[in-house]
Specification:
One of its GO terms (molecular function) is purine-specific mismatch base pair DNA N-glycosylase activity. Helices cover about 45% and strands about 15% of the residues. It has about 375 residues and is α+β, with helices and mostly antiparallel strands. It is elongated, with a radius of gyration of 25 Å. The structure holds a DNA duplex (11 and 11 nucleotides).
Length: about 375
DNA sequence: AACGCGGGGGT
DNA sequence: ACCCCAGCGTT
């Protein structure tokens, strides 16, 4: 396969480089497996600089396995608000509850048990076992695949599971006796700081001397990765419903269903647009009113257009038009407040801290506050 | 193996 | 306007 000399050059020089250049990150100040675990889950698909403030707040609010296991899920979702991929938070708490109940709060130090936990896949199990317990397990993420595909000039599509298997075997072979924790962190650190996706900083790279991609002038072309499909657009009309009378100064929000996209998070009432294009504001508002009446039994009196905005997922783009509105005649029952299903609430700016919203709705509400202060 | 799942930063 | 992500679960 690859020569021992080439592999040892990589491991040895990478470790030396890491001792000098490693960043002082909050989760590197402890070997607490619970803290390492939280950081690794937050870091899935998310950059270090984004994670740091969330990590600080999270471990302060949930300092132990027991604290997170016994917390209400809504508090956990609120602490995760803005990080995205909210199933990570729900799975993390579910898994921490299992650790609390089945393992007396000790994160299991072996592959079988830790991999059985919700939200802990091959990457996260390897990361926790190596970083917290110094076990010689590979932790292969996108960063590691990029570094290895370049140094060893591997031209397989990194989106293929078979390529990941190859990388895991290779990454494990590269771990020198007793160095798993530092080595895996060093590998990711190199990918983040030096062997970057575009315009890698080869001149400062500790393993440039034997990098096959560099030698072949291929460092910019690797790794090979099949392009993802573009996200599908969805038009959505949002009703920013302002309360009157006893609800003056509040807005109507609702909780999303238990399962599926953005499960159990809160949002402004909105409807998916049945057509592929918007009409005039007047027509849009009529259609929005009808849709809310039919789907939710909410009757509104349309107000003014408020703003346009987008919410981008990896697979969908919500293209949203926001209209102000007030509650009008209700469909059924005709009067009273009891018609509001349990998952609707009136909230004002002062209660927003009690509910977790996807960022797009936070932006809309902040825009409203900004305009009303001015 | 393919798809669903957020959000922000870099160039 | 693209590109990139410190992945995992479901089907």
């Amino acid at each position: 396969m690859y020569s021992e000399e080439k592999k040892q050059h990589f491991s040895k020089n990478l470790l030396e480089w890491y001792q000098i250049h490693k960043r002082d990150l909050p989760w590197r100040r402890s070997r607490n497996p619970y803290y390492i675990w939280i950081s690794e889950v937050m870091l899935q698909q998310t950059r270090v600089d984004t994670v740091i403030p969330y990590f600080h707040r999270f471990v302060e609010q949930f300092p132990t396995v027991e604290a997170l296991a016994t917390a209400p899920e809504e508090h956990v979702l609120k602490a995760w608000e803005g990080l995205g991929y909210y199933s990570r938070a729900r799975n993390l708490q579910s898994a921490v509850r299992e650790v609390h109940e089945r393992y007396e709060g000790v994160v299991p130090p072996n592959k079988e048990e830790i991999s059985a936990l919700k939200g802990v896949g091959p990457y996260t199990s390897g990361a926790i076992l190596s970083i917290a317990y110094n076990k010689p397990e590979p932790a292969v993420d996108g960063n590691v695949m990029r570094v290895l595909s370049r140094y060893f000039l591997i031209e397989e599509d990194i989106m293929k599971p078979s390529t990941r298997t190859i990388m895991e075997k290779l990454a494990k072979e590269l771990i020198l006796e007793g160095t798993a924790s530092d080595f895996n962190q060093a590998l990711m650190e190199l990918g983040a700081m030096v062997c970057t996706p575009r315009s890698p900083h080869c001149l400062t790279c500790p393993v440039m001397a034997q990098c096959s991609a560099r030698e072949a002038g291929m460092e910019e072309a690797l790794p090979i990765k099949k392009k993802a499909k573009p996200p599908r657009p969805e038009l959505r009309a949002v009703a920013f419903i302002e309360g009157t009378g006893e609800h003056a100064g509040k807005w109507l929000i609702r909780q999303r269903p238990q399962e599926g996209l953005l499960a159990r998070m809160w949002e402004l009432p909105h409807v998916e647009w049945s057509s592929n294009e918007w009409h005039s504001d007047g027509e849009n508002q009529d259609l929005l009113r009808e849709a809310l009446a039919n789907q939710e039994q909410i009757g509104i009196q349309p107000g003014d257009w408020f703003m346009d905005t987008e919410h981008i997922f990896s697979h969908i783009v919500w293209k949203m038009k926001v209209y102000r509105a007030k509650l009008g005649d209700l469909q059924r029952p005709p009067t009273g407040d009891e018609w509001i299903p349990f998952h609707y609430r009136w909230v004002g700016p002062e209660n927003l801290q009690d509910y977790a919203f996807p960022n797009v709705f936070v932006r809309i509400m902040k825009e409203w506050q900004g305009r009303n202060e001015a």
